[in-house]
Amino acid sequence: MPKFKFSPKDILYNQIRLYPKTEFLIYSGTTFYNQRAPVSGTAVDDVPHVPNGYVSLYELNVDRPSTAMIYPFITKGGSLSSFSTVSTTNFNSDFAYGDILSGSYPLSSSITRQHYAAGFTDLDSGGRNYRKRIEALRNTIEFYSNVSKHFMVSSSASGRDLAAVEMNMIDIPSIFFGSNIDKGTIDLKFYITGTLVARAQDLYRNGEIVVTEPASSTETVVGLALYNEGFIILTSSTAITTEFQDDYLGTGVVQNPTWNYFGSTGSAATPIHSSSYTIEFSGSTTSPTLTMFAHARRGMLNFSNNPTYIKYSSSGSVDEELAITASNMYLESDKKYIANTISSSYSQAEEPFEKQTFISRIGIYDDDDNLIAIAKMATPIRKKESDEYTFKLKLDI
Amino acid sequence: MATTFKTFSNNDKTSTRTMLHEAIPLTGTIVSGTYNEENIKNYSHGMFQSVYDYPYLSSSANHILDITYGISKDSAYSSSTTVQQEKKLNIYNQMAQVLVGYDATGSIRLFDEDGNFAAGGATIDEAWFFNFSRLLTKDEIKKGSFEMTFLTGGAATDAVKGESGAELTIGDTGSANDYRVNSPAGEYGILYTKSSGSTGAFSDGYDGYPCGMIYYQAGIAVLTASIFNNLHVPSNVGAENWVGLDAGPAAVGSGSCQGLMTGSEISGGVEGVRDRIKNISFSNTTELNSTIHFCRANHNEFNYSANPTYLSASQIVVKDKAADSPVAYVTTIGLYAPDNELLAVAKLSEPIRKDPTTELTFRVRLDY
């Protein structure tokens, strides 16, 4: 089997960017991820072992009873590796070398929504009022203030203080979008009794969430999006409509719908049924790819080591024998004939001999001659001496 | 952006390897078909049967294992095989090529009962293959953790399942420290019987009857057909105590394992044995390789910052007067290639103060 070396021009490194679309529908206390309905199994109510709207990492425990779950474990050893759920103190004090630390599956993830009433939620030791999550995000939010004035946490220009105003924060884990949310793809829809009453999008790709429906409120900025971090922050307490009210806060007191109530399902005991919401966006993922061009030049690769490439004699006549063997000798015949595989259009006729091979696979070897990859053809490619081919091999890495 | 680079010495780098395991229990109900056989996939080629953990047409389904069997050309079953003979021979040869390899003459070796080819001894001429999915076995099956339990008796009915002693357990007991390395497919351990009905004390792991092997990296269990038959009674157990599937799987009803393997299609034979599986359990292994870089900031290093906010009006903002010591806050450590290409970035959970009175060592771990 001949081997050829790739020249620098034969190897290309590329990146493929994909934009997977994601949709969450929130209705009647349940979240539906990409329109996936719950599937009841024989052992559990939902086959993936996670609530609807969640994704299960590894997706291993499919419809398993709780007594037969797959779980991870690790033995405490010199590498001091542990699960991140075990604190350093516990790791040092609670486990001896050789002890087993176990975890559990499934590990799940979903969107979370947090509604902040007007006012502060936390008080630090110095007597300062603040909101923990907003403090954690303050630098991140203000990093984008060159894009829009709305990215100032507290500003007279935007006219509000994210640390104090009524606010609605939706957290989207990165498992749903990859590297970042694609700009200009966020689409929030607010339905009441199945009718679209309001819609907000990041029309200008600058993180501002602006109203696009109803027409009377268009261009109003009702929130902002952190594309790289996966947060949507809504700050509008203006009633979307005054013709409908629901118990959005789950307190038993009905309210007009506002963007601050977007995603609310009421209380767990009495979920609201008339309001539903969709969150749509596209993620962005990058897949590095390696492209290799393998050339089958004219006049090359015209011989095969396949046993059927040699003509065998049915009669075993000497001139067609492959080899002569005896107790102390092995003599390969110098009169081996290559089988003529050229097909004739005529019955009982044989075409003139021509060398031809069928390329069925290409092996990729490393510098040490280790076979590290094989590319297979869908169908073998016929190659005659005068033919020349270039095979394009693509490897996602 | 770093303005100061330090070169790692040999004492600043070390590598570790951690084995992460997952315990994988497979109850017989998964394998025998909880889902009205919708999780069992047959193929038009008829050479093996695939088992999924959920109906395989569902996107939730995971492939669990493939089951098939093969017959060596040296087997007494070979000439009497009337159905799919070539395929059964081919399967044995293919598995033997990959798992056992060739001898000095270029012939395919047979599975050797104790893995010692030099000593000769009994070979496994009729073998059942349980090929576990890479999803479950990961890098390799943990040595000493593999166990399969079969239901025995005339028929695999619920009544028999409940009978005391009507089970045959097979495991690689003792293989954590006693495994073979003479396979082209990696390391393997010998599977021994440890039946509740046997008089042989299996508790020490070596008194049981060798009945197959488990290839840890390949994730393939090979079982001799003898355990499903009373033709081959282990000498140290005694016929009266042997609990092989002497009547043959009920789904076939041909009366013996030989009849099953020779006169049945592979899918039919697999169905019979699949119904006999009560439990399979093993732990898998994932190797986590880590390189730890000790990044040392000596007392006179990294006390200044190139951050634009470090200076205001040409003065270091963290100094009140000129005589004060410089102070910097370490937030990020970059690992660079010899040609100064940034390869990796380690972030601290909180900035660490650094001044000339302190020396710091940061432990940066890179898992791969």
What's a concise summary of this model?
The complex is a heterodimer of chains A (397) and B (368). Chain A has helices at 88-94, 132-143, and strands at residues 11-18, 21-27, 30-33, 55-57, 71-75, 100-102, 107-109, 112-116, 122-123, 129-130, 154-155, 160-161, 167-171, 187-192, 195-201, 208-213, 221-226, 231-234, 275-282, 285-296, 323-326, 329-332, 356-365, 371-384, 389-396.
- Report the total helices of chain B: 7
Query: How many structural domains of chain B?
Result: 2
Helix percent band of chain A? under 10%
Distance between the termini of chain A: 27 Å
Q: What is the radius of gyration of chain A?
A: 33 Å
In total, how many beta strands of chain A?
A: 25
Query: What class do helices, strands and sheet pairing of chain A give?
Result: mainly beta
Q: Could you say which overall geometry of chain A the principal axes of the C-alpha atoms support?
A: elongated
Query: What is the total tally of β strands of chain B?
Result: 20
The proportion of residues forming helix of chain B, as a percent range, comes to 10-25%
Global Rg of chain B: 30 Å
Termini separation of chain B (Å)? 25 Å
Question: How large is the share of residues in beta strands of chain A?
Answer: 35-45%
Q: What is the succession of H and E elements of chain A? A: EEEEEHEEEEEHEEEEEEEEEEEEEEE
Main β-sheet of chain A: number of strands, strand sense, barrel status?
Answer: 10 strands, antiparallel
Q: How do the SSEs of chain B run, as a string of H and E?
A: EHEEEHHEEEHEEHEEEEEHHEEEEEE
